[in-house]
Amino acid sequence: MACSNCGGADHNIQTCPSVRRCGQCGGRGHDRRNCPAVPQARPVAPARPVPHVRPPPPPRPEHARSDARWDQIARLHAVCARTDNLLAHLYWPENTRHFETSRRAHECGDGWRLRATPGHGVRVPEGIPSRPTLNFFVADKDWVAAYATAAENRQITHGLLVRRQAIEQFGRRPGFEFVEIRVGHPTGYGVTDPADFWRFDIGNHRFAVLDAMRSATVARLATPEREASRFIDLPGGSIVATW
Predict the structure, then answer these.
(1) 3-class SS of residue 101
(2) CA 27, CA 142: separation in Å to the nearest integer?
(3) Percent of the chain at pLDDT exceeding 70
(4) Contact indicator for 148, 69 with CB cutoff of 8 Å
(5) Please, how many CA atoms are within 13 Å of residue 117, restricted to the half-sphere of its CB?
(6) At residue 69, does pLDDT exceed 60?
């Protein structure tokens, strides 16, 4: 049979001189790629796609509080450190609507309106009216530190800083009184008239309301009992900060 590569009659393709020898085994009729002596590579399965996994969020700070709130705490600390004779008036969560009403009026150039309410201080006997009052805190660096904790625990996120002189001026009006509160039962100070119980706080009752601020110095402005006289309008210049 003639060579299938060159057509010669005296040899076949395995011995054909024109066929390139295999570089692996030296044989003819095939090359290295087709050499039977070379082990065939096993087919490699395509890699499975790696599912996209969202990385976990970075750990939150220990206090896990709002950055904006803590920026405000830092600002309050700076204001109270450089300014003396400031009072803080706070709005509990159920009263923030009153804050927003006064804030809008203040931004329009009006005064900041506050309304005195009864029920502050040592409870009076049933049937005796409680004096309407407004609560303030003496705003110093110790109060700011306590407020930072109480704000988080009690969600007390709204308030204002006002110059003490402005509140003292209201306290000199007829029917108004402004005092710093004594801690303890009135009878321990020789006071037995329930009309003066608003001037005192029971120490172990404070935590439920004030939280970390239970040791802060509290001041109260008492107003006349008639409804129209319970409102005061603070002049814009007396407001140092709001939040």
Answers:
(1) helix
(2) 96
(3) 75
(4) no
(5) 8
(6) yes
Q: Report the C-alpha gap between 92 and 94 in whole angstroms.
A: 6
- Indicate the pTM of the whole model: 0.70
233 pairs with which residues across the strands? Answer: 113
pLDDT digits (tens, 9 = 90+) for 116-160: 999 999 999 999 999 999 999 999 989 999 999 999 899 999 999
Q: Do the beta carbons of residue 185 and residue 95 sit within 8 Å?
A: no
Residue 184 has, within 13 A of its CA and on its CB side, a CA count of: 8
Beta bridge partners, 137, equal 88, 218
The domain locations on the chain are: 1-36, 67-242
Question: Which amino acid is residue 175, in one-letter code?
Answer: G
Burial environment of residue 213 by CB neighbours within 10 A (0 to 12, 13 to 18, 19 or more)? buried
